[in-house]
Every structure is written in structure tokens, then in C-alpha cells.
Design goal:
This protein is mainly alpha-helical. The protein contains four helices and no strands. The protein is elongated and about 50 Å long.
Length: 81
Amino acid sequence: METQNQEHKEGKVASAIEEQTAKLPSDIFLWASLASMGVSLTLKCLGRRHNALFVGQWAAPFLLLGIYNKIVKTEGHDRNS
């Protein structure tokens, strides 16, 4: 049996973000990550090294947002409240 500490609830902002985030399909974040890698490669081939590095660093945050999205969909905020 799971118990939840009533002192550790999500705030109003986090709950609102989770509610909106859960509406997005999880694969959007995967495609965004792959797109940023593709754009980065293109920029690198065009000789725009700094821009390529900047855009290439977007891949990891997109994947992390996808993980967050999946957790919100499966667990929800304050699931037991």
C-alpha cells in the first residue's frame, strides 16, 4: 500500500504544466530531438560550427522533456490525492 506525504504536493504552476504537457504525444519530443540533430549536422556541413553546436545541444533537453511527458502521463501529479 502506497502512502503519500501530504506535505509534498505539487504547486499550482506544476499541476497546470503537467495538465497541458500530458496532452502532447510523447513522440513529438523524440522527433524534435532527431530534428535538432539533423539541423545541427546540416549547419556543421555548411561551416556554421557555433550554430551547429548550439542547435545540437537541444537534443538532450527534448529527450528529457519526453521522459517528463511520459512520467506525467503514467503517474500524473499527486496521483494518490
